[in-house]
Design a protein that fits this description.
This protein is an alpha+beta fold. The protein contains 6 helices and 9 strands; from the N terminus they run H-E-E-H-H-E-E-E-E-H-H-E-E-E-H. Strand 3 and strand 4 form a beta hairpin.
């Protein structure tokens, strides 16, 4: 009887373990006011708000690394083709500030630099977590630059999933998204997709790489310059989850 009870208990624990989702992430905020070097010297405005997940497996560590690498690359003022020197968000902020000091020493007339990097968990279901990663930076010139991307994650394993893994029927989702975009910009089904503000390659609509979930919608996000000019800003196609769900491989019921 004891052996039978022990077997049932072990199986129950294994079932719970296999079906448990990632724990809620830790929220971290860093800005220039938290750095000792900025207490005695003028620093650019830097704000980094991000999340980290409890490390309990290699896949979860890889998820945290993906978030950290986004922050590091967003603050890197070096050669974008070369690997960044910083190895974590704190170091990335420090290098951003040092680069600002270097540049202002050579060109005192330049405007102050500014950077903001925000990483938040937008959506969570039993199957899926969707993380939005946005960044804005100004390092001189006529205007700054901002971008948004998404990480979609298997809730149970912590593994980052690709868009090909996330989307079950890309063709059908593409049709749905194009119809929504045409509706938003008053383009008929027979109008050339580039008849208005857009510049899709080969006059053919395509999905962006930035696809995630926010505020009850599947969001397909195009950054500035991706399909339209900077003046036209970024473009979002928002599809209610109940419409998009049939074309996804992961449950979006929360």
């Amino acid at each position: 009887m004891i052996d039978k009870f022990a077997s049932v208990l072990i199986l129950s624990l294994l079932f719970i373990s296999c079906n448990s989702s990632l724990k809620e992430p830790i929220e971290i905020t860093i800005d220039q006011s938290t750095l000792t070097e900025c207490a005695t010297a003028a620093c650019p405005e830097v704000l980094v708000e991000y999340i980290q997940y409890e490390i309990d497996a290699k896949k979860t560590r890889a998820l945290n690394d993906s978030i950290n690498n986004f922050i590091i690359n967003s603050l890197n003022l070096g050669d974008p083709a070369a690997a960044a020197i910083a190895t974590n968000p704190n170091e990335a902020i420090q290098y951003f500030i040092k680069d600002y000091w270097r540049d202002t020493s050579e060109f005192p007339e330049i405007n102050e630099y500014e950077a903001e990097v925000i990483v938040i968990e937008n959506f969570r279901s039993d199957d899926l977590i969707s993380i939005e990663m946005s960044q804005y930076s100004y390092t001189g010139g006529a205007h700054g630059y901002n971008s948004v991307s998404f990480l979609n994650v298997d809730s149970k394993t912590g593994e980052v999933i690709t868009n090909n893994q996330f989307i079950k029927d890309k063709n059908a989702l593409t049709v749905l998204a194009e119809n929504k975009l045409r509706e938003n910009y008053n383009l008929s089904k027979t109008d050339n997709i580039n008849a208005g503000v857009f510049w899709f390659e080969n006059d053919t609509f395509y999905l962006s790489n930035a696809i995630g979930i926010s505020n009850g919608n599947l969001v397909i996000h195009y950054n500035s310059y991706e399909i339209a000019s900077y003046a036209d800003g970024s473009i979002d196609i928002e599809l209610p989850l109940e419409e998009a769900a049939p074309f996804l491989n992961y449950s979006v019921k929360n």
